[in-house]
Amino acid sequence: MVLELLSNKQLFRSDFLQSTRRLLRIGQLFGTVPWAVTLFEGDERPVASSWQVRLLCASNVLYSLALMVAVVVATVLQHVEYDWQMPFMTRMLYISEYITANGVVMLVLAGCHYQRRCYGRFSEQLLAIANDVATCGGAVDFRRVESMLNRVLASAILFFASVLMVDFLYNDRMFWSFVRSSAIYTLSNVINVLGLVQYAYVLYFAFLFYHNTNQLLMSYTRHSRDARDDKRRYCPAEIVLPINGALYDYAQLIDVLRRTHLQLSKLTEQVNGCFGILIVSTTTASFIVLSLQFFAIYQATTVRRWTLNETYLLVYTVLWIVLHAAKVLMILYPCHLTQQERDRTGPILYHFDTTARDVALNNALTKFSSQLLHQQGSQTACGVINLEMTLISTMVGALTTYLVILIQFDTAVTQGQANGNGSSFAGNGRNNGST
Fold first, then answer.
1. Is residue 78 in a domain?
2. pLDDT tens digit string along 301-313?
3. Rounded distance, CA 80 to CA 1, Å?
4. What are phi and psi of 385, to 5 degrees?
5. Percent of the chain at pLDDT above 90?
6. CA distances (Å), 319 to each of 131, 156, 159, 163, in order?
7. Gap between the Cα atoms of 256 and 133, Å rounded
8. What's the domain range around 395?
9. Helical H runs in 37-141?
10. Which of 117, 254, 319, 419 is most buried, by CB atoms within 10 Å?
């Protein structure tokens, strides 16, 4: 039995490393994952090569600083050269966007080094939970997680490739303008998205483990019910008692699942605590960008002479709306799935027959039910944002209000200018150097 558990643990460890390899490599390329990160204790480098590890860490820090400087310098050049011609209200929103975007970049690049031990801690917890679920008879499908991750990464690569192509065409194929624009918008958002993918990846594992736990509980209820039906069929006048200790085995398995459920609850709290500041910053930045981009869509309807440049800018605007809406969904949807599966566990326990005279089983069910009473409520980010899908409706309402305010400001500016030029779509959209 011990050898079987060790074999399962080694197999799960290998499958987990396989499923995370591509995410780690891409994250290390863009500075969102430390180069010297280790997911498990056995992966630690020998002491003899400690100077190589220090050199690698120093190079990683310099590389992260170079990415930060590139984004900040490009942002300053963009603001100094082009944003001065915007109306006050729009210029303030763009400044807010620059501040939040640069803050998110610094947060991700510095946070991955500051919290580098979280990679190993979360990996060990996921491996332990996977081993417990397998002990209870569950199937841990690492290939499903890897397949999902590959689809997400492939979609992100295709999306940002489309963004770069449209950005290059919008900048009239001017190389340095394209580089500056890409550093401000594309590079910063790639870093942000890769940070959020790591968050969604861990929560998706938690969702699958919650789902496996519920599936196991459902199967236990069916098996125990079938066992009692067989007993009643042969001895209808007798009280239903444990059959060959089977129900006592169920009690032990349910207790293991209860501990697993508790570990998953603690894991999700730790993950939200680790990524809380990033979630709040990303949500704030996305709200600002969506306000600007919907306002740019409105201004596109006021352009009198439509040119090819306005077409590129309109496509560019739509792409950024899709991106920032997807970032909000990348935060909320994994939390929604995890919380939904967590809340399904309680009703499943009601399917067990507590009238049977099995003290161990009833005690295990009572303890499990009492534990679930203390795990209700939505997940939060820094205690500021409730990570529920209802946040989307709240953001839609706030965006509508801000869009009306921006339209009123734009109308007032347009009417107040004697020459009638006002704030045009090309002047208030993504000014990347081709005004």
1. yes
2. 776 677 777 888 8
3. 68
4. -115, 130
5. 31
6. 42, 12, 8, 7
7. 8
8. 1-40+53-231+245-415
9. 50-82, 88-114, 117-135
10. 254
Q: What is the mean pLDDT of residues 5-17?
A: 75
Cβ(107)–Cβ(194) under 8 Å? no
Determine contact, residues 431/83, Cβ cutoff 8 Å: yes
Those residues whose C-beta lies under 8 Å from the C-beta of residue 397, and which sit 6 or more positions away, are none
Contacts of 371-379 with CB under 8 Å at 24 or more apart are 371/258, 371/261, 371/262, 372/261, 372/345, 372/346, 375/261, 375/262, 375/265, 375/342, 376/343, 378/335, 378/339, 379/268, 379/269, 379/272, 379/335, 379/338, 379/339
Q: What is the model's pLDDT at position 18? A: 86
CB 166 within 8 A of CB 40: no
The answer to whether position 46 is within a domain reads no
The yes-or-no verdict on residue 230 having pLDDT over 90 is no
Q: What is the per-residue pLDDT for 75?
A: 86
pTM summary value? 0.85
Mean pLDDT, range 362-375, rounded to an integer:
85
Q: What is the pLDDT of residues 317-351, one digit of tens each?
A: 999 999 999 999 999 999 999 999 999 998 888 88
Residue 376, Ramachandran bin (φ over 0: left; ψ between -120 and 50: alpha; else beta): beta
Task: Scan for tokens 């008692």, then name that residue.
Answer: 241
Domain annotation covers residue 237: no
Structure tokens at 63: 């590389």
Structure tokens at 411: 């109308």
Task: For residue 211, give every residue at least 6 positions away whose Cβ sits within 8 Å of its Cβ, in sequence order, or none.
Answer: 341
How far apart CA 248 and CA 197 sit, in angstroms, is 42
Backbone angles phi, psi at 101, to 5 degrees: -65, -45
Q: Please state, in angstroms and rounded to a whole number, the distance separating the CA atoms of residues 406 and 384.
A: 26
Identify the CA nearest to 110 among candidates 278, 269, 272, 268: 278
Cβ-Cβ contacts under 8 Å for 378 (sequence gap 6 or more) = 335, 339, 386, 387, 388
Q: Record the tokens describing residue 360, joined without a space.
A: 């161990």
Is the distance from CB of 260 to CB of 211 less than 8 angstroms? Answer: no
92-96, 181-185, 194-198, 296-300: which is most confident: 194-198
Burial class (CB in 10 A: 0-12, 13-18, 19+), 139: exposed
- Helix, strand, coil tally for the chain in percent (to 5): 80, 0, 20
Percent of the chain exceeding pLDDT 70 equals: 83
Domain count across the chain: 1
